[in-house]
Amino acid sequence: MTQELIAPPADLAAQVGRACAGLPDVDPARVLAAVRGAADGVQAREQAVIEAAALVAAEPGYSRVAARLLGAHIADEAAAEGVTTFAESVAAAYAQGLLNEETAAFVAGNAAALNALADDANDDRFEYFGLRTLYDRYLLRHPSTRRVLERPQHFWLRVAAGLSSTVAEVAELYALLGALSYLPSSPTLFNSGARRPQLSSCFLLDSPRDELESIYDRYAQVARLSKYAGGIGISWTKIRSRGSLIRGTNGHSNGIVPWLRTLDSSVAAVNQGGRRKGAACVYLEPWHADVEEFLELRDNTGEDARRTHNLNLANWIPDEFMRRVESDAAWSLFDPKEVPELADLWGDEFDAAYRAAEAEGRYVRQVPARRLYGRMMRTLAETGNGWMTFKDAANRACNQTAEPGNVVHLSNLCTEILEVTSDGETAVCNLGSVNLAAHVVLPNGGRPPARPGPGDAADGIDWAKLRRTVRTAVRFLDRTIDRGFYPTSEAAAANAKWRPVGLGAMGLADVFFKLRLPFDSPEARALSTRIAEEIALAAYGASADLAAEHGTLPAYGQTRTARGQLHVDHFPDATPVLRDEWTALRERVAAVGLRNSLLVAIAPTATIASIAGCYECIEPQVSNLFKRETLSGEFLQINGYLVADLKRLGLWTPAVREAVKRANGSVQGIADLPAELRELYRTAWELPQRALIDMAAARTPYIDQGHSLNLFMETPTIGKLSSMYAYAWKQGLKTTYYLRSRPATRIAQTTVAAAAPAASPVPDAEAIACSLENPEACEACQ
Amino acid sequence: MLLDPGMDLTLRPMRYPDFYERYRAAIRNTWTVEEVDLASDLADLARLTPEELHLVNRLVAFFATGDSIVANNLVLNLYKHVNAPEARLYLSRQLFEEAVHVQFYLTLLDTYLPDADERARAFAAVEHIPSIREKAEFCFRWIGSIDSLDRLESAAGRRAFLLNLICFAACIEGLFFYGAFAYVYWLRSRGLLNGLASGTNWVFRDESMHMEFAFSVVDTVRAEEPELFDDELAGQVTRMLEEAVETELAFARDLCGDGLPGMSADAMRGYLEYVADQRLARLGMPVRYGSANPFGFMELQDVQELSNFFERRVSAYQIGVEGSVAFDEAF
User: Which of A254, A414, A648, B150 has the most CB atoms within 10 Å of its CB?
Assistant: First the structure.
């Protein structure tokens, strides 16, 4: 020993011991052994938290140990600010100017009743990553000491109180939040009860008009919306293309790229209250003459003056383009200044206008449609960006597009919101997600079946509980519309008029793991569809009740629902299970209308799923073992269902752990694992993507907005991608989201034992013939 | 054979397609310094303790010159003696990557150290900071060790070259850099200097590939000329690694002083010994230390990341995608 080690304080041993209580397979000594050199008890506990978190790869139980230690740290920190009860927390935050007067007065007036609601036992529901995320970014902090002013249960109560008028309402919402069975989106969690309660997740802005003032006005709108933690979608389709004449100066336009560069810088400059960076997605229709430059904006090579490193990109694709790709026809590119009508049309009217403009020779140039499509695929593979979203499918079934002139011009930052926009209307959406994992009932007395099998899917979900959750969720989502602060008048006007909300779901993969359904099985697809149907039905029912109570949305007359059409009616192939319930709903809606024009949208839920400790939205697991990199550090995530199975089989050994790590989270190479478990624990990379698309398509009739559907391909090629996205379009998907691929090379793993040198790398004629370069030539490996 | 003197220019039939595949894979992982966002680091730097700041300053001072030294050896020795055009393709690509790393650390220092005098001092660290100078001298000694070798005619010459190659792969890229990366990820585990860590993720990925390429050259030579790999060579490699561990440990003492929360020279010793053993095992030689990895946060570096765009830029995408539009391929 060359250095003197300061022994950890004795109290720490007791704390770690308490944190390990009741958890099998965790050892306080392992956590304590790594604590060294700490100056004081607080620092020692911080180290213990980090060390416990680092042991998760060996034993997932340490996640709970770390969470409990962190929970103790949070409670101490709040106590140092004089906060031990909910009412004290709200009073302290209000005194620092963080909360609004109405919420503070409501809590002060009902202090005893609200304090009594706080159930600290709920703290034990958190995994480490979830609690860490709350602590780092969500809990209110003192502006100068930076210590937290609320504990986790105070936080949930504050979110509920900010949306409530009575103690009973707080209790109703808190029951869901504390149990992690429903969570509103991050802006609502950040800002409920705040002085400026910006509660909305998404803002969709129509393209600026093709003039300087309008463009700069949009920048300002985007900045104001970003500042309060909103994600931005903005179309740029109406701005003239490169080479277009500028009459005022008799010069020629440089096209859209310089404008988007400015937008890029503006978005990067706006930091969302220090909690996360601003983010925006730009939508462009593929007939815009600058589309090829648009697709290069995220390339990391080439002239940096023509790159935007912060913007996300999406293609807003009319069916006509996909038809031309299919038939290998030419595609005409237009300057929107010359053909301004195209951006505001969809469906047959778009097709007719497009062909007429083409016949009149008004295009800038023509390209083979397949070449442009191939370019889109390359952008997806190289950057994950350039999302494929389908204009006609998005408009056709949208409840807001019954009248001409009401057009969905784009989706949002996460491709799940589909609402009409115009120059004066910025679409807004308030989101929340049901944690499906919290609604599973295991048929055989709570124990998972020993062997995977389809079982009775209908028995896997507590449908009554799910409906109750949805009804509460919708009531409070509707409440956010009225309680929210809107950073621009365009957003306030549109949200008051249409009152859309987006109720989604998360933890679908947990449901399948619990019920032992392989993600691509017909049973999984049927259950997923049933879940979507139940959510839609309950959500519409709740909105109809709200309409009966408060009246319909102001623009109800402009909706398809007012014309007797529900979203599901646009899908003749849909086969609802709950026929009687739909009939009853139709009668009810015909009588009282709806309070909300749109109700269902499945958002990515990246952060709130972390808080809830479930898998993201409707996604399959990406890996059985992966890490998350966030602003607050790196965190290991391990599939707890898999670990439980491995332990049961006596396979949770260092050798198996290393094998999983070496295989980047795949269990396909673990021969001792029964085949049906290997099938169950396939990762997104190992699932046929066709199954993901089919599952999404089956769900679509019940999703009146959209869903954030990521697709996964380990090593993408243009051929595979073009086949996949053509299939997604044909299946009627409205949008797709990221294409996820994997790095071409990896780091050498530091903590996995080095492999001995390869037996014989010496090239000989046979080896050369069998090289990766000419796989066709080799018969030996087939 | 791979180490036969000369300048082979024949790519078909290709003798070492594995090297060519490595070259292509490297191209798919192209990244640029402009993609790294260092902005949040400045706020972190402002709240570091003096001890932490000392560590960070020393660390970036090492990074400032480390990659240039590796590039020098690549040009002066590796490119000259590894005689296969496909291997030289890889080395050309590696040279570009070293240049990107140099540019990254240049940008990093320019960002971290706004004061021109401080910057100049940091770049001159290799001359006036003993713990960094010693590491550089270790490198220069091995670069110089085969100065006089123009052609690898004899077994002794080939062994001398192998030692140079192994030194750069196992000791410099594989130990000095791995040590430096550990400090970066230790900071990262405490939520500090995310910008440095995100650039380091990419540097780490590149360095891993460089090391693996060098080891596969060693594997190839071993298969072609097994007689070169005698006990004496193994002994020399072990002594070289011992020296590298001690040199790096002196650097660790300089960085850590009396220890920082979760990081100390003692813990670093265990880590370096563990890494050195890994290198020996990869070379098929007996391990020397039998130490365990003390750094839980390094476990995280072996696991693939999943970022969402609100947080950081996703660093996992590929470039150089192939194929043409089709409608009937499996997906």
Answer: A414
CATH of span B53-300: 1.10.620.20
Q: What is the pLDDT of residues A620-672, one digit of tens each?
A: 999 998 877 666 677 788 899 999 999 999 999 989 998 998 888 999 999 99
Please name the helix (run of DSSP H) or strand (run of DSSP E) that holds residue B219, with its range, or none: helix B194-224
Report the complex ipTM. 0.78
Out of B208, B261, B296, closest to residue A38 by CB: B261
- ∠ CA B204-B207-B209 to the nearest 5 degrees? 110
Å from A301 to nearest chain B CA? 8
Structural contact between residues A408 and A735, judged by C-beta atoms closer than 8 angstroms: no
pLDDT digit string, tens, across residues B47-66:
899 999 999 999 988 988 88
CATH number, domain A202-396: 3.20.70.20
Instruction: Specify whether B178 is catalytic.
Output: no
Q: Which of B20, B23, B90, B105 is catalytic?
A: B105
As a three-state string, the secondary structure of A130-185 is HHHHHHHHHCCECCCCCCECCCHHHHHHHHHHHCCCCHHHHHHHHHHHHCCCEEEC
| Active-site residue, selected from the candidate residues A20, A202, A281, A414 | A414
Intervals of CATH 3.20.70.20 along chain A: 202-396, 427-607
Q: Is A520 on the interface with B (CB under 8 A)?
A: no
Q: What are phi and psi of B294, to 5 degrees?
A: -85, -10
Any idea where the domains of chain B sit in the sequence?
Answer: 53-300
- From A145's Cα to the closest Cα of chain B, the distance in A is 14
Q: What is the pLDDT of residues B143-174, one digit of tens each?
A: 999 989 999 999 999 999 999 999 999 999 99
A235, pLDDT greater than 90: yes
* Percent of chain A residues past pLDDT 70, beyond the cut: 89
CB pairs under 8 A between A and B: 291
pTM for the model stands at 0.82
CATH code of the domain occupying A427-607? 3.20.70.20
